[in-house]
């Protein structure tokens, strides 16, 4: 009798109303700070100082956005500069990381060469090292080269990651059939042709995931850009935002408008590619 | 003629096979050595010198002086303690909640993608934006959202930023908010990779859903849980933007008037770019490095034990 009341073996449990309620509540908590930032960004300073704090958006969003846009004062650059800078930095870092890490990941996954294991252990061992530990010598370097406020100062240290190599290696070791490579070899392909015609097409899904993770990280990177760039000089968005938030006597609603503006580009990407990004993060977790 | 072409081709083939792997890894290792590994190790060398940030390439030998100075530096010890406390305050609830949420998301569900994207939205929010938003949520006065919410439960306004524990709680909340969804998805991915046969066997043994979760899912997830714990630990060692921007223009760089929410990474920045002592900052950075090495070593041991027990 009880046999038939047991859940079918292996089948996943159906979500009941309580599950939906719990997930809806958690989603609300998860999204609330962003929503609250929007309500504050669309209020006046006087409105957000009131009790209770505003829980619905007000009508001052455009004024506050205009103030943020000219965050650098009259005559200085607008927020367009940090936006373009962030885009350049994150794109360059992403393109380079994906390209070079795929090459190295392929070599570690499928080619034989002396020293392979030792070098791979070195890569794995450094994955857990906080990149922030490198900022002091990098600061000496850019001081010597007079690279303060130059974008290459933040691009160059981000061009490759040990995680990227490991990630691509894991993916290619599993997903790229060795027979495919051998067949191409028999047809007379050299390694360069292999990489171009076999490896890159096979690696594309993992390259997309690595690219997405790298872009988010580069876009949101904070400590090193804060050291290398200045808010009034040639900042990325995060550095500009730190300048807005760290300034004295700035309207809180304007600061929140700044937080909203710097977050919206990535949130739009997340809303549009939500499903793929979620899949990417989950895939990155399993393979990494 | 055919012969020599074949010989030339085979020579070229052999060269290709032996040299190409190095050509493929060379760009990575060159960039990695120049901007990752070398600066990491050179930090140790800088830490043995007196260096002013205003004249950063002029180094005077100081031996272990920067380290012995740390011994009597109470801000350093406080930052070390805070790093651990804030790390635990954020990581433990974060991983427990993520595990529970993953269990819910693993059910057959409508609108599953919506919930996942909603949970992942904080991950897309930068540290800077998140810290400023939560600074605003945790305002001291009664107009702050956190205080207003407490007031609904009859609790008076809390001075979050000046408090020893309230400030740590607020900083930990930022970390908790940004990373719980990310960890949830990692757990969910691992749960979906658990072989169905394990559940089938457990069902035949009469295990309830709860028991299955505790006896099958959690053990199968052990390596993933270890992985997320390491990521959280390393993340705590890097905690900088959250306390820096939470404290605002006045107190951010100090981690509060009593350094009550100063962290190791924040102290590196403070020593290097406010006190202008690059050498002392490097010594603290090198301490972080040793802790990271210890974390990696311990987790490697645990991972080895897990592998043996499976």
TrEMBL record, chain A:
Keyword DNA-binding (UniProt): no
The protein's location, in the record's own words, is: Cell membrane
Query: Which biological process annotations from GO are given for this protein?
Result: transmembrane transport
Q: What Gene3D superfamilies does the entry give?
A: MetI-like
Instruction: Indicate the transmembrane segments per the record.
Output: 20-38, 87-109, 118-142, 154-173, 194-216, 254-273
Q: How does it sit in the membrane?
A: Multi-pass membrane protein
Note the InterPro entries from the entry. Answer: MetI-like (IPR000515), MetI-like_sf (IPR035906)
Q: Please give an example of a GO cellular component term from this record.
A: plasma membrane
- The ABC transmembrane type-1 domain sits at 83-273
* PROSITE patterns linked: ABC_TM1
Q: Which UniProt keywords apply?
A: Cell membrane, Membrane, Transmembrane, Transmembrane helix, Transport
Q: Family, per the entry?
A: Belongs to the binding-protein-dependent transport system permease family.
Please state what the protein is called: Cellobiose ABC transporter permease protein
The species is Actinacidiphila bryophytorum
Automatic annotation (TrEMBL), chain B:
Write the protein's name.
ABC transporter permease
Gene Ontology terms: cellular component: plasma membrane
Please state where this protein is localized.
Cell membrane
Annotated membrane-spanning segments are 21-42, 84-105, 117-138, 169-190, 220-240, 283-304
| Coiled-coil ranges from the UniProt annotation | none
- PANTHER family found in the cross-reference section: ABC TRANSPORTER PERMEASE PROTEIN, INNER MEMBRANE ABC TRANSPORTER PERMEASE PROTEIN YCJO
User: How would you describe this protein's topology in the membrane?
Assistant: Multi-pass membrane protein
InterPro entries hit by this protein:
ABC_transporter_permease, MetI-like, MetI-like_sf
GO:BP terms for this protein?
transmembrane transport
Q: Which organism is it from?
A: Actinacidiphila bryophytorum
What CDD domains does this protein map onto? TM_PBP2
Q: Which PROSITE patterns match?
A: ABC_TM1
